[in-house]
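Its record is retained below.
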Amino acid sequence: MKRLLAVFIARNKEFLRDRAALGWNLLFPVFIVAGFAFAFSGEPAPLYKVGVTAEAPHDGFYTTPHVQFIVVDDVAAAITKVERHRLDLLVDPAGGRYWVNDESPRGQLLERLLLAGDGAALHKESVSGRIIRYVDWLIPGVLGMNIMFSALYGVGFVIVRYRKNGVLKRLKATPLSAIEFLAAQVASRLWLILAVTSVVFFGTHLFVGFAMYGTYLALFAAFAMGTVCMISMGLVIAARIASEELAEGLLNLISWPMMFLSGVWFSLEGTHPAVQQLAKIFPLTHMIEAARAVMIDGASLAAIAPQLGVLLAMTAVFLAIGARLFRWE
């Protein structure tokens, strides 16, 4: 018991003297609570969503409470959203027509309200399509979150442990260069993560049968580019740090906000506008947006090019910083 107590006291002193780890454990829960309170402040989200091809008038049906009227630029994309039950109704006042999904109860209710008001002269265009379940919407976020944790901890935390245990010091004495070492870490982690993600994707698809309207090539490109970006971010954390506890705290500082603010579990449409802008700085946001666009909206590789471009730019920045700061010891 004396030896156990001695180790117990020594470990407590080690933790209390590590100001970085102590501050992290005290402040992180406060940041989480404050962040959620700020994100979901304001008015409740509207109950229904109606797409309008032009600026909605300010009278009649267009003043219905609890309905969000969204101006759409691409009618074809908006019709697809009606088919997927992501828009309850689509109205083209100038063209004298509207679109409704006959399989959507919410769309049927809004159609009655439209026809009871000033929509009697509009021509009905019926569409149909499978409803997007929550699991269909969720699976890209879950896969992206798994990629994030595997990339950050599988590279960042491991390299820090190598440095702490003296492995990097031994590798420094070999002909291996820093660029070769980092490139090997990126390549090794990349194929492992993509292999595991593929197994999870097709394995769950056999049991759940979630929506997949795009091409597997576009989906693979989204996950592959996101994986490289996450690995590069982990290299920045592991560039010089030798404390595993500090590395874990920094990795949590990066991963947890991304998990909650990148749309993994819920849509950001009802959050504070500042939160929606903040989410754009996270690579996980762009990876999930691209994956959901492919799986749910059937987006092509060209359609997700903006998200892939952002991920590519972030990867270049992270790799440059990581290579610049990297030290063997």
